[in-house]
Amino acid sequence: MKxxxxxxxxxxxxxxxxxxxxxxxxxxxGKKRVYVYGSHDTLKTEYCxxxxxxxxxxxxxxxxxKCHGVCYESTDGSVLYAPDVVxxxxxxxxxxxxxxxxxxxVATSKNPAGPFKNPVKTEIGFDPGVLVDDDGRVYVxxxxxxxxxxxxxxxxxxxKKETIKENIIKHTIAPWSPKDNMEDPExxxxxxxxxxxxxxxxxxIYSKRYxxxxxxxxxxxxxxxxxSYKYSDKPLEGYKAGGDISLNGGELLPNADGTKSMSYRWGxxxxxxxxxxxxxYVFYHRQTGTDEFSRQAMLEPVDVAMDKNGRLFIGKITxxxxxxxxxxxxxxxxxxxxxxxxxARKIISAxxxxxxxxxxxxxxxxxxxxAYIKAVYDKKDSISAPIVDITSGITAGFRYLQFGTKSPATxxxxxxxxxxxxxxxxxxxxxxxxxxxxxxxxxxxxxxAEITSGVIGKRAVYFEFISDSKDxxxxxxxFTFD
Length: 482
Known about the structure:
By secondary structure, this protein is mainly beta. 1% of the residues lie in helices and 46% in strands. The chain is built from one helix and 35 strands. The chain has one helix at residues 98-101, and strands at residues 22-28, 31-37, 51-58, 66-73, 81-88, 91-97, 103-109, 117-121, 129-132, 138-143, 147-152, 165-166, 189-198, 201-210, 223-232, 240-247, 252-254, 260-262, 272-276, 279-286, 296-306, 312-320, 323-328, 342-343, 348-349, 355-357, 372-373, 387-390, 395-402, 410-417, 421-427, 433-440, 446-450, 458-466, 474-481. The strands form eight sheets. Strands 24, 26, 29, 31, 32 and 34 form a six-stranded mixed β-sheet that branches. Strands 25, 27, 28, 30, 33 and 35 form a six-stranded antiparallel β-sheet that branches. A five-stranded antiparallel β-sheet has the order 19-20-21-22-23, with no helix packed on it. The two termini are 12 Å apart. The mean pLDDT is 96.
């Protein structure tokens, strides 16, 4: 019996929905683990839920995640938005966002997994991000469509009033933003403050909302699918332009006119970067379902470098003569911390697709009303999140699989055919070489295609669904190569 892939991207089980993840490396009882604190999408018809859970993985293996259970519940039954957790001394402080982020409290624990107790109301606002500096001073950043920051007093609750500042990075234009002439058309703060210290620089990570078209990034409407950054030599001032680290809109596909198109339905984004045993990663989230209420935790390795003038680069970096000269968002993948690719001979859920493009209406997820990954909630390791509402022309892409040194003979698809269709297996690109093809009859649930061209090593794989029908033709559950 084959095993199901675990710890891919999303890296938590497919039944779990934890967005807004703030990753932290903490050492507890002699062991270092990466802990992730985020919202918890349990309400299903609106953002988040009334509890927070903690997941962690050993620093040696970011594919091996463990749930520690509920670490905090709102004191009044209200919905909890994005939290943050930091350590000072032997105490862990959770900045929990009750009442949908309008009431920030600090609860404490001696264990990074909680439970966090004795909440105290603070003077902090929406989406708090906290930085404990090398000298023990603590800074906090927050805001929605307008940014604020300050230094915290030693009580970790109250602000040093004389340090409060606003708009140290300029904000977006949106229906909710103030008209204060502090807008930035190219690099606009939206929400999701997350401060970090990187190579001696203070780095402000945030959700950017582009409200100007960015064809080179596939942006043609207001879009806040990016995690971006600015950096400074001081914690509360002097921030310089950085760039975009992550985009949850999938692979950027080139168009004939030089523009690009996203290949996955973007949505709001929130997360941060963390150094784990010398390797930097960005933690972020993506959307499933047909709305933003069943988000999932994602991660990708990122590069971090500084040039001789002190400019900081984070993301996918381009070098010239050994010097970093530019950076762009890292690609969104199916592999996550499986950096050598997902084992192609294990069972791989369709829910790990990082590319879902084309179909009846075209575009990411087949356009409005098109195909999507169905959210699942049954707590079983073998559960698969299917792609549903597939129409002719949809491609479902997985980046990347690992085939090893011997090419497989066949690929087996677990699907539900609503109409007669053909499934083409393409390699390296969604329009790439067809290495296998199978005709699937209406009502069929399993299909096996012979691999007609050898494939080895780490490769991207795309399944193309083709039919004469203009209706929904299939649901795609999982696959494995043999």
